[in-house]
Write a structure and sequence with these properties.
The complex is a heterodimer of chains A (286) and B (241). With 286 residues, chain A is of the alpha/beta class. Chain A has helices at 42-49, 92-102, 108-117, 131-144, 161-177, 189-192, 213-219, 227-234, 273-285, and strands at residues 3-13, 16-27, 31-35, 57-62, 65-66, 77-80, 149-153, 181-185, 198-203, 206-212, 220-226, 239-245, 248-254, 267-270. Classes of the chains: A alpha/beta (286), B mainly alpha (241).
Chain lengths: 286, 241
């Protein structure tokens, strides 16, 4: 099966359960948004997929092969990490040269080309780069690697708006040129909302939902008006959150949209992905 | 296997230049101290040094520690398994130990030839004469020290600082217990046997002859033991954020 399969994965740190019997798949050939609040379990799962840490229970398969201690998956997956895991005393161009030898699928010319587009000085050592340029180096490596699965963990950390735009452009053109799976774990939901096809939402170590962005945005909407009318409309519906101001109320609903009664002054509006994310995760988080 | 070769090359190439930086600093310090002492005493006749390999031992110990801290995260980031990382690190230790043993053997013999007052660690124990044995002895000594420190840092990383501190206290307690055991419990005959065994392990045989193969075998066994321990720990080692 061409997918990253996460099967009944549990990971504990002392008394804290970071992931609790999580099962789902990242299918091949899609751009995923892997979303969750701080401490939700995103990085733990990414580290498990990348064989950096081990699951207490369950297993992770990449195209049917176990991800744990398996060199057969080396050319299948790459994880751009939020953490700084590179040799800080090596120059960027030397990093590129070594990565070119580590991976058969690394495009060295492309890496230098992308570095030039970002004005990344490849003659500098990793430690001499600013936080933003360290991120640029890491995402340059990920973009120049032609592996079937690429995970970006907070890829635009420290990047200015221009560089973020450039990254999203490069990511899309790269995706169009060759089908592969791209997983983006980020807090900047609205920035990636137009990019991602499917969302995996994780909260308190459990998967809250996995749906296509289109379906999700179609299902999620807001109803606003007088509190009594909103309450009446919301009866029997999956209300994921409410905001109130005086006698007015705004309810966030997930489910099939039904029109309000003819005589009501209720207003139905679309809900964006970020609001949906906030409302779905604030119950448990706050 | 190609990937293993590449990762070994990465380990060796990225560590190679630091050997020469170390030697550069070491010999600069020796030269400076010699000059200061010689000038202040007004004569260089009695100025000198011995056993420069001790500095190399410290360096390879640091290398054993850094072998984990720096390279583990870099290689894990590049998708290598712990088995590959372990094999590459061990190869790095062998590479560095081989070069440093060669340099120290050459320098030790050269300094002794230039000034009869200089004695290397090896020559202090076994005397000058067999340059190859000198190199092999130093090589396995450095290798065992690297492996010991590598095992140590892996254990500390796995257990965490607090438990490692407790472990350190327990080990110190065991050392004191052993000292007491030797001093007050074990009979003179047992102590004598243990002493002879230790001397044999270092090549000093009961008939008064010197067997240069035995100390090499002792260091080799120690390296194998530390390496096995390191592998047992690293295969369960997780990356810490």
């Amino acid at each position: 099966m061409n997918a990253i399969q996460i099967k009944n994965v549990t990971k504990r740190y002392g008394g804290v359960t970071a992931l609790d019997n999580v099962s789902f798949s990242f299918s091949h050939g899609k751009i995923y948004g892997f979303l969750g609040r701080n401490g939700a379990g995103k990085s733990t799962l990414i580290n498990l997929i990348a064989n950096r840490i081990f699951a207490d229970q369950g297993e992770i398969l990449i195209d049917g092969l176990p991800a744990r201690e398996n060199m057969d998956v080396h050319e299948k997956i790459f994880c751009m990490s939020e953490m700084d895991l590179y040799d800080t005393s090596l120059k960027i161009r030397d990093h590129f040269k070594w990565i070119n030898r580590f991976y058969d699928s690394f495009d060295l010319e492309k890496a230098f080309r992308i570095a030039e587009q970002f004005h990344l000085d490849t003659g500098k050592k990793f430690k001499a780069l600013s936080k933003g340029y360290q991120s640029i180096f890491k995402l340059t490596v990920a973009l120049a690697l032609k592996v079937p699965y690429v995970i970006f963990d907070e890829p635009v950390l420290g990047l200015d708006a221009n560089h973020r735009e450039l990254f999203y452009d490069l990511l899309l053109s790269d995706y169009e040129s060759g089908e592969r799976t791209i997983i983006i774990a980020t807090h900047l939901i609205e920035e990636v909302a137009n990019l991602i096809e499917e969302v995996v939402l994780i909260d308190q170590g459990k998967v809250l939902l996995q749906e296509s962005v289109d379906d999700l945005l179609e299902q999620g909407y807001c109803v606003s008006g007088l509190a009594s009318e909103v309450d009446s409309y919301c009866q029997g519906k999956n209300v994921i959150g409410c905001d109130e101001l005086g006698g007015l109320k705004l309810a966030y609903i997930l489910g099939e949209k039904t029109l309000p009664p003819q005589d009501s002054r209720l207003q139905l509006t679309a809900m964006n992905l970020q609001k949906l994310f906030v409302k779905l995760t604030e119950k448990g988080g706050n | 296997m190609n990937k293993l070769k590449t990762v070994i090359q990465y380990e060796c190439f990225t560590s190679f230049k630091y050997i020469w930086i170390f030697y550069g600093i070491q010999y600069a310090c020796v030269a400076l101290i010699t000059a200061i002492v010689g000038i202040s005493m007004g004569s260089f006749e009695h100025v000198g040094t011995n056993c420069l390999e001790v500095n190399s031992l410290i360096y390879v110990g640091i290398l054993g520690v850094l072998g984990f801290h720096e390279d583990f995260k870099t290689l894990i980031q590049n998708g290598f398994t712990r088995r590959y990382i372990f094999l590459a690190t061990l190869s790095l230790f062998a590479f560095i130990s081989g070069i440093m043993a060669l340099v120290d053997t050459a320098v030790g013999n050269l300094l002794h030839a230039l000034s009869g007052n200089y004695f290397s660690v090896y020559a202090s124990i076994y005397g000058y004469g067999n340059v190859f044995a000198n190199w092999v002895w130093l090589f396995f000594l450095y290798l065992s020290v690297c492996s010991l420190f590598y095992l140590g840092v892996l254990v500390i990383n796995r257990m965490g600082k607090t438990i490692s501190l407790f472990l350190g206290v327990i080990l110190a307690g065991i050392a004191l217990l052993l000292a007491a055991l030797f001093r007050f419990v074990l009979s003179g005959e047992v102590l004598s046997r243990l002493g002879k065994l230790a001397l044999s392990a270092m090549g000093f045989m009961r008939d008064g002859s010197i067997n240069l193969f035995f100390p090499v075998l002792t260091f080799l066994l120690a390296t194998a033991l530390f390496s096995l321990g390191s592998y047992a720990v690293i295969r369960r080692t997780e990356l810490r954020g």
